[in-house]
């Protein structure tokens, strides 16, 4: 089938060019060379032996470009390139009107689906933040190995929320707190000199405890800041972790 179509096309173009050369007109003025591939009727190309029998295009008629341009476009192209610029030509008509059913399956097919495929898939929902109670049921108190707890309960993720729970101090319960130490050295030595207090001695006794969200991938160093480092060092109230990206 493509060979027949291309032969017809070549015949047709040749016939048109013969007509045009005899009429000495630019190709785009010959709007009577039209639609050899109209499926409603099977055309026969104009007889090449009598090109002069066709009525030559009148110079007074305004050019009507859309039909004469179609046969020069190869069937595989969907949109014709704009015509050569000419001051005598009116602006080209909008392309949808000149869209013709010459190549129905291929030219129509890709035009409609993009509206359905253009909607991007919804972004994956961000997982809700996990809330992790530091020490589990032990909460935050003297003598529990929190570094071991952190090793066994990892890995921790970015956006995880650590929950510190501890009783307010009274005559029998010592005060606790939560500090963030700046580096491994201060963590090993329980040096609170440059530590930052995250929660004081009463903030762990609220109903939800003290919540701290992990926000970056650098190591975190936590410690109790009470008793001048004694809870951190001897009481083992310290732990370190490095959250990872959820994936
Ligand atoms: C195109 O064809 C019609 C009828 O076949 C004729 O009346 C008209 O003059 C022709 N136009 C040109 C430019 O040849
Ligand atoms: C101190 O607090 C603890 C925990 O809240 C409580 O069990 C204990 O009874 C309190 N002691 C006194 C003397 O208030
Ligand atoms: C702890 O912090 C809370 C909130 O900032 C504050 O209301 C409370 O007085 C503080 N407690 C102590 C003992 O500093």
TrEMBL record:
Range of residues in the leader sequence: 1-23
Key words of the record: Signal
Family matches, as InterPro entries: Cupredoxin (IPR008972), Phytocyanin_dom (IPR003245)
Sequence ranges of Basic residues compositional bias: 99-109
Segments of skewed composition (Pro residues): 80-98, 119-128
Spans annotated as Disordered: 39-133
Pfam family, one: Cu_bind_like
Highest taxon of source: Eukaryota
GO molecular function terms listed in the Swiss-Prot or TrEMBL record: electron transfer activity
Phytocyanin domain boundaries: 130-245
UniProt name for this protein: Alpha carbonic anhydrase 8-like
Organism: Cucurbita moschata
Gene: LOC111448602
